[in-house]
Amino acid sequence: MLGGMQDWSLVVTQIVDHAAREHGTRELVTRWADGSESRTTWAGVRQSALRMTQALRRLGIAKGDRIATMAMNHHRHLISWYGAVGAGGVLHTINPRLFDEQLEYMVGHAEDRVLLYDAVFQPIVDRMKHRWPTIEHYICYDSGAQTTHFEDWIGGEDGQTDWTECDERDPCMLCYTSGTTGNPKGVLYEHRSTMLHALTAVQPAIFDFDARSVMLPVVPMFHAASWGLPWAGAITGVKFVFSAVNDPAALCELIQNEGVTHAAGVPTVWLGVFQQLDSAGGNLGKLRHIICGGSAMPRSMIERFMRNGINVAHAWGMTETSPIGTTGCKPSNWDDLTFDEQVDAKAMQGRVPFGVELRCLDLGDPAIVLPRDGKTSGALQVRGPWVVKRYFKAEADATVEDQWFDTGDVAVIHPDGTLQLTDRTKDVIKSGGEWISSVELENAAIAHPGVAEAAAIGIAHPKWDERPILVVVKKPGAEVDPESLREVLATRVAKWWLPDAIEFVDEIPHTGTGKISKKDLRDRFRNYRLED
Ligand code: AMP
Q1: Using H for helix, E for strand and C for coil, what is the string for 343-376?
Q2: Region 107-123: what's the mean pLDDT?
Q3: Which of 178, 189, 318, 381 for a ligand 1 pocket mutation test, highest count of atoms within 8 Å of Cβ?
Q4: 380-406: b or e for each residue (b if 16 or more CB lie within 10 Å)?
Q5: Does any ligand 1 atom lie closer than 6 A to the CB of residue 273?
Q6: Contacts of 79 (CB under 8 A, 6+ apart)
Q7: Would you state the pLDDT for residue 532?
Q8: Topology classification of domain 357-424
Q9: What percent of the chain lies above the pLDDT cut of 90?
């Protein structure tokens, strides 16, 4: 027997139709690298996206073809998201910070036919063009380049068309994850998974959107679908404030001038913003909700936001989870907690929304599902309708039994379901048969006022198997002596976790997605010797 309700396919073009119809005059702003600004509306975004759909068809782009972008955050990039999927295409957002080998591999693997890019990435295009044989058309978002200019390209169309009809299980977006080893892997999002994710993301505990929200997405549109903001924002008709540069001074100015109420970005972004406020003065204006994830939010950062009356949604997720897995939503006893306890709660990665399930397996014996006791850490697995099943073009599923996906993260789950990430399975340090969390050591180290960044890695030890060493970058002009750092650490971690050595360096290596590259660090300290 069939149900009696209407057919309403969960395709993402419905989102921009809704935004144009219900929030048509709501503004979107872009601040360009030269300081100039452009403004459009949700109705304008839809109209331009329809034009782009026509322009893509004119290029011979058919349903399922991959359309790549390599661009910063701006409204033309947003238009391209809807224009690409509107033509039935699969939007492939390329991270320009990846290495040439990865860029070559991804474009070839995706078989991208069109690339839309910012002029600032022209050197990458020039360098890579001969290694990207599948790309037939290059379109530049900025005028003045030799390539076709985006506005001219869509300007020749009238927008009088319909979106290409898609099924909700058709793919709409392709995002590659760049592990530290092996080739990047493509995660192929569907219309349905994207829509379910977007509907979830607007909840108060996640993006907390309504029609009054003014959102500054600092998380790049080329990383993990910008956490789904371009879709979720259209559902509620938020005013987007895009910055084509991640310069802290520009971000602070935009927050003030555009009345930004919501912002999303990785912890490094907010460190930059705080430094800017400390040196140049100013405040965070109307900002009241921060979504932060990608790596653990330092406790001191959470505290500073909260002291300013800003709600923190500390989120965990990955490209494979579209990317929302958990957010730091308030537990039911929130109002009974002291301020310090509230900050402690937010320093964990929070709880899942409906649609995501988590479990942890014993690190030594994966047959054992660990209790949610808030103590025992294990290999974190996840499942749900917006979690990867099989990587693009892979021959086997990425999941183990019952659709569980192994995240590569190590975590503790608390009795109330709160997730607390403790490490990556590859980075956790095994000392005398017990696990030391490199991430917790790092978090403890950056509580020292002179420490800008810290990374803990395991070094082979004749007696203990592995022992941690801490690699530290000092803040400019700061004096940090190892003893004072050790004292700070001792107040936060168990004594046997204290690093055997502290090494000061000028810079810690990062991956193309801005995370500490433990692999490079381990290579650098490969011959490091610890005494018995
Ligand atoms: P990516 O797919 O590049 O977004 O990377 C996902 C990985 O980032 C996760 O598997 C975690 O290791 C890490 N990550 C994401 N959010 C957090 C968080 N809030 N705290 C700690 N690590 C995080």
Answers
A1: HHHHHCCEECCCCCEEEEECCCCCCCECCCCCCC
A2: 97
A3: 318
A4: bbbbbbbbbbebbeeeeeebeeeebbb
A5: no
A6: 45, 48, 49, 52, 154
A7: 67
A8: Luciferase; domain 3 (2.30.38)
A9: 80
Residue nearest to atom 4 of ligand 1 (CA): 318
Ligand 1 geometric centre to CA of 323 (Å): 9
Question: Taking residues 204-232, what's their average pLDDT?
Answer: 95
pLDDT at residue 385 tops 90: yes
Look up 177 and say whether it is catalytic: yes
293 lines ligand 1 (CB under 6 A): yes
Residue 502: its H or E element: strand 501-504
Q: Is the CB of 228 under 6 A from ligand 1?
A: no
Q: What is the DSSP string of 421-444?
A: EEEETTT-EEETTEEE-HHHHHHH
Supply the mean pLDDT for the chain.
94
List the CATH code of the domain at 24-347.
3.40.50.12780
Question: Which residue among 320, 440, 453, 466 is the active-site one?
Answer: 320
Concerning whether 497 is annotated as a catalytic residue, the answer is: no
Domain ranges for the chain, please list them.
Answer: 24-347, 357-424, 429-524
The residue annotated as part of the active site, out of 13, 30, 93, 177, is 177
pLDDT at 425 over 90: no
Per-residue pLDDT at 181 exceeds 70: no
Domain 429-524 in CATH 3.20.20.140: no
Structure tokens, 499 = 């690093």
Region 408-429: what's the mean pLDDT? 92
- The residue whose C-alpha atom lies closest to atom 8 belonging to ligand 1 is 294
**pLDDT computed for residue 179 by the predictor:** 64
Task: Render pLDDT for 264-286 as a digit per residue (tens, 0 to 9).
Answer: 999 889 988 998 999 999 999 99
Task: Tell me what percent of the residues of the chain surpass a pLDDT of 70.
Answer: 99
Q: Is the CB–ligand 1 distance for residue 323 below 6 Å?
A: yes
Query: Atom 20, ligand 1: which residue's CA is nearest?
Result: 296
Instruction: Round to whole Å and give the CA distance between 65 and 503.
Output: 49
Ligand 1 center to 223 CA (angstroms):
12
Mean pLDDT confidence for 22-50? 97
Mutate to test the pocket of ligand 1, among 221, 316, 424 (most ligand atoms within 8 A of CB): 316
Element (H, E) at 408: strand 405-413
